[in-house]
Design goal:
Keywords: Hydrolase, Protease, Signal
Helix content: 10-25%
Structural class: alpha+beta
Strand order of the largest sheet: 1-2-3-6-5-4
Number of helices: 6
Protein name: Trypsin-like peptidase domain-containing protein
CATH class of one domain: Mainly Beta
Radius of gyration: 26 Å
CATH superfamily of one domain: Trypsin-like serine proteases
InterPro entries: Chloro_Bact_Ser_Proteases, PDZ, PDZ_sf, Peptidase_S1_PA, Peptidase_S1C
Order of helices and strands: HHEEEHEEEEEEEEEHEEEHEEHEEE
Length: 356
């Protein structure tokens, strides 16, 4: 499967509109019949390729959809992906919210099953829940290698958008390596997540926590959010959705299943508590260090309380969100240059990043 098919364009033949050409056309010469035959063959090949692609879609959906579930958490509804045959299910942290118990229904139907929270990791918007009595024949999804995801690759999003279980939408990978900040929730800033997969497959409320699948039947991401258009009252921007890459899903879920929590995030940290500050023009102008963790990355580099960070490596820092996005692109142990203001004087420090 996952065939790469070159598009086939119908042959185009330029024919001068001369009397001779017109007479030849009327004479019943073999050129017209050859062109017609060529066109017919090309159409037949296109139909065959289209039927094969459709068969790929149907096969993948039949294979993967049983591994996608609907999760009810209080008044909220989302999706999840079966992680193993012991009843562990991976989903988004914002799907589970503050709930500790859940009702789970397979995308293919059946009775509701009770589940409980194992652990939630809001920093990466991932969580794992577990069925209390896993049914026999539970089918874990196959997590793919998200580093091999390519722009233009066909993908299917599976989940329960708007409560419509077993829904499948289709699109392509529009971009990779996106850093996305989720909207604020409950007065707290949303997670800033790096290396996300952008897709044109429709992502709607209820799709969160489901599966973004390639034509090899591998889950390459967990659909998490859709872009919004501030110019349209923050309504959803059609065709722009984001999924957490399968590599991060595997890293987080594996630790939660084994240890009950995330012990190694793989995410870089500056080890500060900060807040956005405004300049003289009342526009965001940097991040003030409210607290620098003792022996943390910033403190070890001489950055302390009251300093205002204005640049991180090659990125300008104007808000706490822009700083989080810059950090999301780094790894623990990376060395970066941080520019900050202290008492009106600009300084620069080399910081070895810690781990969140």
């Amino acid at each position: 499967m996952n065939r790469t098919r070159a598009s086939r364009a119908l042959p185009r033949i330029a024919v001068p509109l001369t009397a001779a050409a017109l007479l030849a056309g009327c004479s019943g010469s073999g050129s017209d019949s050859a062109e017609t035959e060529s066109t017919t063959q090309a159409a037949a090949v296109a139909r065959k390729d289209g039927a094969a692609l459709q068969d790929d879609y149907i096969e993948v959906i039949k294979d993967v959809l049983p591994s996608v579930v609907q999760i009810t958490a209080g008044d909220s509804l989302g999706s999840g992906v079966v992680y193993d045959d012991k009843g562990h299910i991976v989903t988004n942290a914002h799907v589970v919210g503050d709930s500790r118990t859940f009702k789970v229904t397979a995308a293919t139907g059946g009775k509701e099953l009770a589940a409980k929270l194992v652990s939630s990791y809001p920093e990466q918007d991932l969580a794992v829940i577990q069925l209390e009595n896993p049914p026999s024949g539970l089918k874990p999804a196959k997590l793919g290698d998200s580093s091999k995801v390519e722009v233009g690759q066909i993908v299917l999003a599976m989940g329960s958008p708007l409560g419509l279980s077993s829904s499948v939408t289709q699109g392509i990978v529009s971009a990779t390596g996106r850093t996305v900040s989720e909207p604020r929730s409950g007065g707290s800033p949303g997670a800033t997540i790096g290396n996300m997969v952008q897709t044109s497959a429709a992502i709607n409320p209820g799709n969160s926590g489901g599966a973004l699948v390639n034509l090899d039947g591998e889950v390459v991401g967990i659909p998490t959010l859709a872009a919004t258009d501030p110019g349209m009252g923050d309504s959803a921007a059609p065709g722009i959705g984001f999924a957490i890459p399968a590599s991060m899903v595997q890293t987080v879920a594996e630790q939660i299943v084994k240890d009950g929590e995330v012990t190694d995030s793989g995410r870089a940290a500056l080890d500060i508590a900060g807040r956005t500050v405004l300049g003289d023009d009342y526009k965001p102008a940097g991040v003030a260090v409210v607290e620098a963790e003792p022996d943390g990355a910033a403190a070890d580099a001489g950055i302390g309380t009251g300093d205002i960070i204005t640049r991180f490596d090659d990125a300008d820092v104007t808000t706490i969100t822009s700083l989080s996005e810059a950090l999301a692109a780094k790894k623990p142990g990376d060395k970066v240059s941080v520019t900050y203001d202290r008492d009106g004087e600009r300084k620069t420090a080399e910081v070895t990043l810690g781990e969140m």
